[in-house]
NAD-dependent epimerase
Amino acid sequence: MICYRLLGKEVIQIIQNTNRLIFITGCAGFIGFHLSRRLLEEGCQVIGIDNINDYYDVTLKYDRLNMLKKYQKFHFVKGSIDNKELVESLFEQYQFEIVINLAAQAGIRYSIENPESYIQSNLVGFANILECCKHHKISHLIYASSSSVYGNNKHIPSSIYDRVDHPISLYAATKKANELMAYTYSHTFKLPTTGLRFFTVYGPWGRPDMALFKFSNAIINQQPIEVYNYGNMKRDFTYIDDVVESVMRIINNGPPKESDSYYKIYNIGNHKPVKLDYFIQLIEVQLGKKAILKLLPMNPGEVLETYADIEQLVNDIKYRPQTSIEEGLIKFTDWFKDYKNIKT
């Protein structure tokens, strides 16, 4: 059953089915936490798994997790999806309706230093998820891809119909591989899968390794921030609430049908690229301090511009991400100052 509520000026769909059982991998991560909380608030049962690795400060992950544990319909399992026996046991124990795979080793630069972790989590782990979804006839597998699959694609804005054969980081290559693996399972086993190419997601409870969190920390502590390509880059920053709303509508729309070969890909972006120097200026205003800039050449694995073509998404889910960068940064910095107990 679907009901409706207001989000700003829009009427949006929400799930109203307390018997829905959803498995979310990476539930202590940034997007996983927000999506889990939204599903729990709307009465769903959520089984979450996360290995709480130390890629960034685990305190933030546990703080997110502690918020989720307040919900009676949330159950947490600590572990990695590359543990085949563990994943299989969870699928045996629970009758999942929907699986949302957000667990992955994140980060572009880190993939240069530690490639093995990307192979294990992003490839071996995802293969385990696919196999279990196939055997247990899951109605819909939704999984995280990334805008990084576009590489330095010359076609702007990036369309889901563009070729993505030239990833320029191992992280991007693993995400492209996920899409290929999902397509194979959709085509061969009629497993409905939807891949989500996220474009620079930001907001409260965000990742400390992402630019917004790193820049805010550095500005508050009067430390230099590393600005690559001398600041001549653009990013399609996408606010977390818009991401979650998009995923919720994808869930409500149901799985891809046979007419779509049981396979879908969407860009999840704001469709409004922002220049990096303007982005930094907005953070300075909100924190009341000037940034110390350390201008550097282009970093290997980075792209010059991300810009999402979201017309297919808007057409299918009847929702367009709407949070401006100015509004989103106010919400982030308000949370950041509260979380860090900063007086400005």
